[in-house]
Write a structure and sequence with these properties.
Elements (H helix, E strand, L loop, with lengths): L7 H41 L9 H21 L4 H28 L3 H27 L5 H4 L3 H11 L5 H19 L6 H6 L1 H14 L3 H14 L7 H14 L5 H13 L3 H13 L8 H14 L2 H6 L26
Length: 342
């Protein structure tokens, strides 16, 4: 018997469409759930990553930082717009460059090993470049126009104050700005590239100043310490301002941040004050474990302080004569040997 119901076919089509919609919603929900889980994992990783700061074993921290960077890069690849992942790669690369790659470069340079020094200098510069690029990308999530603003110090300062007003912004500004300053310090004596880097020193300074305005206590008053180091960059720089800022940083950290003592020695170098220079650096070397939360930072400061008391480093400051007996530089990894072509 012929089916005369005109609505039967419509009902079948309707049920099919409903089934397809349900499937699409389920698929979309699954994707959202996966994204939410991933974002939660990345957020938790950012929180837990600070644990490396409590490690005083330099080589263990080097290995952990290197492995962490690879993990953070993977997170960024999977979630390119996730701001926690961008922060992790920014901090990871800048921290690695300063604490390890630049440390290797400085040790090799003072030891007179030009080949190894050049190798480690390239490593440090590449790491700074990558971290800074990520930092600028992260800043761009909140405000566009960095390339225009960086044309001069006034425009950049105005751009930073207008667009970065939250306390949380201090962290990204700190790591991007400190990386920028450290890269200039690394490259300033390069005959070909140095002038270009030095001409944009103000970019890192402006970022650190804005970071300090938003959260001066971040990372044990490190922005104040680094800006003081900037003001003590030469004998004709702003040494009185540098001294005042170092005194603030020392007081606020209760003398527990050894990197402040080390950075303060740069002021003594600029002042040609050998007694103060040796006093500050020996204070770093004689310190125990003043703050468990600053163990890695303090370990790096001790390595640098020991190296700064070497004969070559003291002569860089214009201090000639015998260096203290405790000034034997720490060992540095040698660059890998080139493979011979079969």
């Amino acid at each position: 018997m012929e089916d005369t119901c005109p609505y039967r076919e419509f009902a079948v089509m309707r049920n099919t469409l409903v089934s397809l919609l349900i499937a699409m919603v389920a698929f979309s929900s699954t994707g959202c759930i996966k994204t939410a889980i991933m974002n939660g994992q990345i957020s938790a990783t950012r929180t837990g990553a600070d644990a490396v700061d409590t490690i005083g074993d330099y080589e263990l921290a080097r290995a952990a930082t290197s492995a962490g960077i690879v993990q953070f890069e993977g997170m960024h690849r999977l979630a390119p717009d996730n701001e926690d992942a961008l922060f992790l790669v920014t901090k990871g690369w800048v921290g690695y460059a300063y604490a390890f790659a630049q440390d290797d470069y400085e040790t090799s340079r003072l030891a007179g090993d030009d080949k190894a020094a050049e190798y480690h200098k390239v490593r440090a510069r590449n790491a700074f470049d990558r971290g800074i690029a990520y930092g600028i990308e992260l800043l761009g999530h909140k405000a566009g126009g960095f390339e225009s603003a960086r044309k001069n110090a006034g425009a950049l300062t105005s751009w930073l104050k207008k667009n970065f007003t939250d306390k949380e912004d201090a962290e990204t500004l700190f790591w991007t700005g400190s990386g920028w300053l450290a890269r200039v310090d690394l490259m300033k004596d390069d005959d070909e590239l140095g002038p270009g880097y030095v001409s944009e020193l103000f970019v890192g300074v402006a970022m650190l100043e804005r970071s300090r305005e938003l959260d001066p206590a971040y990372l044990a008053w490190n922005s104040t310490s680094l800006l003081a180091t900037y003001h003590a960059r030469a004998s004709v720089a702003e040494l009185d301002e540098a001294k005042a800022m170092f005194e603030v940083a020392l007081a606020k950290t209760h003398h527990k941040s050894l990197s402040v003592f080390y950075n303060h020695s740069r002021y003594a170098c600029a002042k040609s004050d050998r007694a103060l220079y040796e006093k500050l650096l020996n204070a770093v070397l004689s310190a125990g474990d003043p703050d468990p939360n600053l163990r890695l930072q303090n370990t790096v400061a001790k390595r640098r302080a020991k190296r700064a008391l070497s004969k070559a480093a003291m002569e860089d400051c214009g201090f000639f004569g015998n260096a203290p007996a405790s000034a034997t530089p720490p060992p540095v990894p040698t660059p890998p040997a080139k493979r011979k072509t079969p």
